Amino acid sequence: MTANSIQDEVKAKYGQAALRIATDGGGSCCGGAPCGSDAITANLYDDTQTAQLPAAAVQASLGCGNPTALAQLHPGDVVLDLGSGGGIDVLLSARRVGPTGKAYGLDMTDEMLALARKNQASSGINNVEFLKGELEAIPLPDNSVDVIISNCVINLSGDKDRALREAFRVLKPGGRFAVSDVVVRGQVPAAIRRSMELWVGCIAGALEENEFKAKLSAAGFADVSIDPTRVYNIEDAREFLSAASIDVAAIAPQVEGKFASAFVRARKPLQS
Hints:
Strands 1, 2, 3, 4, 5, 6, 7 and 8 form an 8-stranded mixed sheet that branches. The protein has a single domain, classed as Rossmann fold (3-Layer(aba) Sandwich). Residues 27-37 have low confidence and may be disordered. It has 11 helices and 8 strands. It is α/β, with parallel strands linked by helices and 272 residues long. Helix 8 (190-201) links the parallel strand 5 (171-184) and strand 6 (207-208).
């Protein structure tokens, strides 16, 4: 798959998800399961967080983690959410940085941007701005952001090196990269990996964790760390794999514990 074809698929899939949520309040995530009901998207946000937000923002959460719970956000920070979708992480971040801070959401899908802006209007949160653009060409100036968050979106990029370089560019010196994403832990046969990625990330290109670290370092980041937050087992994916005519028992030893949601941290050096 080329970078452009991946981008087209991602746009189509998440555009459809946004329209479903906007029209009937429902979405479908990986393997056809309703969003929030499967091993990937379930129980990522607690009730104290979701109670503050429009229901559509919660329903449009198609991520694999909760970066707002793990990122260190402070009043006055400028935060950028890469692949902001329906806006849940942007709105939560905006509350945490307060009126002296700002939260940007970046998405390339018109339908998701429309849904996010509707959710912002319903929430009454004003220190938010949603931008149309791509991870590989962020429409913000150099050294303009304190913290970058993202929720299971880096794996969808067709050019991860460029996306990480862009993240580095827009961060202020000392700025923090704090994202949730899917990672692969160790080696998995290519055919099996593709099937599991389709389940874990809908349309995914998850990096092996050491490769992710290497790409962050190559982009200029320091203090890189990856901490798994939810490790998936073969039972989590059984229904999806069986529907794809894959012998679950046969592949289990090659897959068990190899795919995980993780919190990825890094920092832009003060001098780079």
